[in-house]
Amino acid sequence: MIKVTIDNITIEVAEGTTILEATRKIGGKIVPPAMCWYSKLKGSGGKCRTCLVRVAESSAKDPRPMPKLVASCSTPVQDGMVVQNTTSQEVLDARKAIVEFLLINHPLDCPVCDQAGECDLQDLSFEHGVVETRSEEDRREFPVIDIGDSIKLHMNRCILCYRCVFTADQLTDKRVHGVLYRGDAAEISTYIQNVIDNDFSGNVIDVCPVGALTDRTFRFRSRVWFLEPMDAHRECRKCSGKVTAWMFGNEIYRITGRKDQYGELEEFICNECRFEKKDRNDWVIEGPRKIKRQSVISANHYEKLIKPSVIQPIEGKMGKKEEKT
Q1: Rounded to an integer, what distance in angstroms lies between the CA atom of residue 79 and that of residue 191?
Q2: What mean pLDDT do residues 175-187 have?
Q3: Residue among 34, 30, 37, 80 at smallest CA distance from 55
Q4: Bridge-partner residues for 213, per DSSP?
Q5: What's the whole-number mean pLDDT along residues 89-112?
């Protein structure tokens, strides 16, 4: 085990742990944002640069600072390393510049985007964005296309994080989409209008940090803050069958994989569970999904209950209310 100090907090981690992984062991606001790194996808990271941090001391043996900001998702910690994230104004200024860069081509269509309310880019721009843009150039424009029976691609919103490419590459045998062209002409697409039709293709929707890949079966049906996310499961021969069912009353509007506190899937789910099982009787509803309190999704949905309480939200039965939050 080696010791590393991050924002004046010292912890012990295993050798080979990256700075970002070390910050997640601490938790809270110390954790840098990550738009491209995904703990369950090999090779991800190093694309978006939002996780930049300052290494004030490289190690106990070499206390010199690193000359430039480094990507915390791809930089392993050293024994005695001192890292600054929220305590460094240089890091905060750089992060604000990165957000401005990501929004150069990203359209401000949050009012019509299905990802609104659960978008990582929205959260990032709220924390580190600027009020006005300095860009005068025209934004990139692409037609909206279908890259599968149930997947819609809005390339205008894409930030080229490569998450969907890594997901398709590592979950399936025949990846048919990827990054075409180079530089400012680069785009996510399929070759000669192929379609994504494998059993786990829907996971590219869940890993996308913006609204570039959306669920056609849920498209424009509702806003996420009008729905109640419920833990649900079913017997499935392809995946674990453990999902989040987004419900309005007894009606299931969409199915997604269960995500952890950092917005990453706990388990990948199959297309049958995601797109085809929308009947209430297809699922065993376990109860409300625990979500971050600062999320807009939590608004007006959850109440504190006196313990022990039995929560049965589908039937409308719940324990005595203590206070509404």
Answers
A1: 46
A2: 84
A3: 80
A4: 153
A5: 92
Amino acid identity at 314: I
The DSSP-derived string for 73-122 is TT-B--TTEEEESTT-HHHHHHHHHHHHHHTTTS---GGG-TTTTS-HHH
Measured CA to CA, the distance from residue 138 to residue 135 in angstroms comes to 8
pTM for the predicted model, two decimal places: 0.84
Q: How far apart are CA 185 and CA 187, in angstroms?
A: 6
Q: At what angle do helices 120-128 and 89-102 cross, to 10 degrees?
A: 130
In the numeric block, which tokens belong to residue 261? 């506190």
Cβ density class 11-34: b for 16+ within 10 Å, e for less: bebeeebbbbbbbbebeeebbbbb
Using pLDDT thresholds of 50, 70 and 90, give the confidence band for residue 300. low
Name the token pair of 66. Answer: 């690193």
Among 75, 70, 77, residue whose Cα is nearest residue 91: 70
Give the pLDDT score at 294.
Answer: 66
Least confident of 43-57, 62-76, 125-139, 293-307: 293-307
Contact (Cβ atoms closer than 8 angstroms) between residue 130 and residue 164: no
Average model confidence (pLDDT) across the chain = 87
Strand order in the sheet with 151-153: 145-146, 151-153, 213-215
DSSP tag of 185: G
Q: Can you list the positions of beta strands (E) in the chain?
A: 2-6, 9-13, 52-57, 70-71, 81-84, 145-146, 151-153, 177-180, 187-190, 213-215, 228-233, 242-248, 251-257, 284-288, 303-305, 321-324
Pairing of strands 228-233, 145-146: unpaired
Q: Does residue 79 have a pLDDT over 70?
A: yes
| Maximum CA extent, the chain | 62
Task: Dig out the tokens for 127 from the structure.
Answer: 């924390």
Which is nearest to 202 in space by CA: 180, 157, 172, 222?
172
Alpha carbons 250 and 301: distance in angstroms, whole number: 15
**How distant is the alpha carbon of residue 256 from its chain centre?**
12
d(CA 53, CA 56): 9
